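Form 7-S
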Amino acid sequence: MAKSGSIETTEFRRSFHQETQQILRKRLIWYVSIWGGLGAASFIFAVVMMLRNSQIASLLSSGPTKAMFILTNGAWVLVYAAVLVMVIEKRVSDTRVIRMSIGLIILDGLVAVILREVDPSLNYGAWVWVISHFVACCVFPWTVKQALFPMITLAVVSSVGHLIGGMSATGTLALALTVMAFMTPAVFISGIRHNQRIQKSTNRFLNQRYGMLRQELAYARQIHEALFPPPVTTGPIHFVYRYEPMRQIGGDYLHASNAYVDAHGNESLSVAVVDVTGHGIPAALTVNRLHGEIDLRFAEQPDISPGELLSHLNRYINLTLSKHSIFATAVCFRVDLTRNKLEYASGGHPPSFLRGVDGTIQDLESTTFVLGACKDKDFDPCQAEIDFGPGDSLIAYTDGAIEARSNEGNMLQIEGLRRIVASTHPLGPEESSHSVQGQWSERILKEVTMHRDGLPPEDDTLAIEIYRPIRPKTRSDSDESAVGAESASV
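Output:
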């Protein structure tokens, strides 16, 4: 399987190649039209002047010099015209287009060499070739290698012609080096322009990928948040929560089920809070897997106890995720209305707080190991229970709340969070008319944000509250709870 980096490199190369070919086709049409047009106009003008002076017949009979001039330049014009037609009508592949651009410059040089060999007085052709190569390096999206190829090829051909013509090896080498020295700046220009194009294409490619990634993350966040249950603000058991991921999506997860009805007709509420190691997309992918397992477990066994659920999650993580160094902490609750009890089991999770109707705070410590750290046979959830009557509130959270750092680097820690929960009113004295219950998750997220002094979160933060209201709601209370449910949703 290809790695993501190699896939992105392949995509960039394909994109850069397509962009290069589009530029090359356009520039080749411009070059052939302008440069070839100037050459064709000069050639036609020369022929017309010869015809006007009635020199064609004498030209062809006087010797090969003028005739070779006409034939060579005529062939040059025909080649340029043929290339223009093929490129415009897209009769050639992308690979052949780049070869054509190089071949035209080599053709210019060959014409100069041929004319020089036929008539040594036509040395201006070499300078025409140098100019042609310089213009091509400035126009075509060549690499350094592609810019060097026609220069070296024609330098070799020209040197062989000089040696055959009787020039000394030293003179031939000096002349070749001189011509190459004049052409070298054009090669540097090609290299600089090529590097600039790579940089621009890279930035454009990364911007496009970043935009795509943001869009995909937005969709992923919608899917991730759809896994979270809606708040429950009616009935004998309520629960609300607030969630702030470190990035677009995160590794905190909340599951709630009230499908189980006991023998007395009481509907229980089971809640599981899971915090996966890591952040972002990898953690969110793990959450999706755990969501399926928890959902399946409650579907098959609606009355599953917190300890049984925790044991199942430990077995699943140990067998499938721990080999990738992925672990999780979790705390599972079930409210038993018949016995007024709260059953719970916690695997390495930070302590939850039970805030009694009288304002007392009890810590619900972890009962067992981090999930996935040990095999199923060695795992004991150590399920516990505690009294949970009307007016009581259970407050649970993930470690993003207690690990929030201030500008000075001080963590809020468990003690800081306990002080918040122990305060009289969850949203401050100015909102003392509000019920204490149902506001703690919002208060915790607010206090955590204030503790960070405006700094971005360093971890996903989830805070939940499960509570039993003291009195049944009136119509006005129901309207108010609807607003509270909306503010407490993800």
